[in-house]
Specification:
Layout lengths: L1 H6 L8 E5 L8 H7 L4 E5 L7 H14 L5 E4 L5 H5 L4 E4 L9 H8 L4 E4 L4 H4 L7 E3 L4 H10 L22
Parallel strand pairs: 1-2, 1-4, 2-3, 4-5, 5-6
Helix pairs in contact: 2-3, 2-7
Length: 171
């Protein structure tokens, strides 16, 4: 995994927390950034539909918090699986209920533990403290606690064994 991380220009020895998808307010990127403790955050995605102000605000927030060296902003990627496979945990930090949560399913297929905001389909997809951790939406402290607990207690979010599926073909 170190070689794959190095090839993607990511830290090789850090605990990587990945968020994937659009950069917009309801996806909760700002909540995760408030919650970051000792992890390294990787935001994979881009602003769409005139949301560039929000994306710029995320970068400014990282700088204001003094954590810009622990946050990677990665533009939209077609090969999400390559990025997801190098993460230690995938976070679904939506502040509003999401009706389906494809990201959660993709992370589980990739064999990655998931921390997800409660709401929408999340409790139907994840069993809390079995194959993922479910936290209250927009609660930075709960998100921080969950993501920092996983390195110490990985059994709380043990995803099913990695499936032999190419996620890029399912987008």
């Amino acid at each position: 995994m170190h070689r794959r991380r190095a090839a993607l220009e990511l830290p090789t020895n850090a605990f990587l927390v990945g968020l994937f998808g659009r950069f917009n307010a309801w996806k909760g990127r700002h909540v995760e950034r408030d919650a970051i403790a000792r992890a390294h955050l990787v935001l994979v995605g881009d602003a769409l539909f005139g949301e560039t102000d929000h994306a710029e605000g995320l970068r400014a927030q990282a700088k204001a918090l003094g954590i810009e060296e622990r946050v990677n902003f990665v533009d939209f990627q077609h090969d999400v699986a390559s990025w997801m496979n190098v993460m230690d945990v995938v976070v679904h930090a939506c502040t509003q209920p999401e009706p389906f949560g494809l990201l959660i399913i993709e992370a589980m297929v990739a064999g990655k533990p998931v921390v997800a905001s409660n709401g929408g389909a999340v409790p139907e997809i994840l069993k809390d403290r079995e194959d993922g951790l479910i936290v209250e939406p927009a609660n930075a402290q709960a998100l921080a606690d969950a993501t920092s607990t996983l390195p110490r207690e990985p059994e709380l979010a043990s995803p099913p064994p990695k499936a032999d599926v190419n996620l890029a073909t399912h987008r």
